[in-house]
Write a structure and sequence with these properties.
The radius of gyration is 24 Å and the shape is elongated. Strands 1, 2, 5, 6, 7, 8, 9, 10, 11 and 12 form a ten-stranded mixed beta sheet that branches. Strands 3-4 form a two-stranded antiparallel ribbon. The chain has a domain of 139 residues. It contains two helices and twelve strands. The protein is an alpha/beta fold and 224 residues long. Helix content is 16%, strand content 61%.
């Protein structure tokens, strides 16, 4: 009888400890507030992230963990300008997205490759993967895909762009929308280019500027 009671108490104690550990793990995976770079035990943040920025530091079997942030991200990185000067997005080792940001991003530096963003963002530069919403970069934007309104001081480059691109130099492999700037270029597209110089290999739409060139003709002022 004593042996049975002991076994029952042991099982109850073990279950209680296991339940507490499980709750602790769940608590670690989802946070309301977290510092960046995010720790590997955090899968999701529903609230606020603040720190030096997102970084694919933690990997699993050679691949970065996929993490998600819903809310507000604040990057306070004093080395943002230096990071922009030395970072080459074409040589990025990150081939797959490692973080999904949904909400508002305010950064003194910017995104590197591997970050998807839905919402609004203001940063020094942007080398993210897919950007959807209203994205403003002080210097340059170089992304894989963009959908919405992209504004950048110096240049915007995207493999696929659906929406409005406003910058001194705009470049898109595939455009569905409008480019507004000093020099606009697209390989193929549908839409409108307004600038001093507009170039396209194959465009279904209108070019308005001092010099316009598409796959059919080259004309000043207006081309179609």
């Amino acid at each position: 009888m004593k042996t049975k009671i002991f076994l029952i108490l042991s099982l109850l104690f073990t279950g209680l400890v296991y339940g507490q550990d499980s709750l602790q793990v769940v608590h670690q995976k989802a946070r309301l507030v977290a510092f960046t770079p995010l720790r590997s035990d955090i899968e999701k943040v529903n609230g606020l992230t603040v720190g030096l920025g997102f970084d694919p530091k933690y990997t699993l079997n050679g691949q970065p963990y996929f993490q998600k942030v819903n809310g507000l991200n604040l990057d306070i990185n004093p080395l943002g300008f230096l990071m922009w000067m030395f970072y080459d997005p074409s040589k990025s080792a990150c081939k797959e997205p490692y973080l999904q940001m949904n909400g508002i991003n305010i950064s003194t530096s910017g995104y590197f490759r591997g970050i998807n963003h839905n919402g609004a963002g203001f940063s020094l530069y942007n080398y993210g993967n897919t950007m959807n919403g209203v994205i403003v970069s002080v210097i340059v934007t170089d992304i894989e895909k963009g959908r919405g309104i992209l504004i950048s001081g110096l240049g915007i480059s995207a493999k696929e762009l659906k929406g409005l691109s406003i910058s001194a130099f705009n470049d898109a492999n595939n455009l569905s929308g409008m480019q507004l700037g000093f020099h606009n270029h697209t390989t193929t597209g549908k839409g409108l280019q307004i600038g001093i110089i507009n170039k396209s290999e194959r465009l279904k739409g209108l070019q308005i500027g001092f010099w316009n060139k598409n796959g059919k003709r080259t004309l000043p002022f207006i081309n179609f």
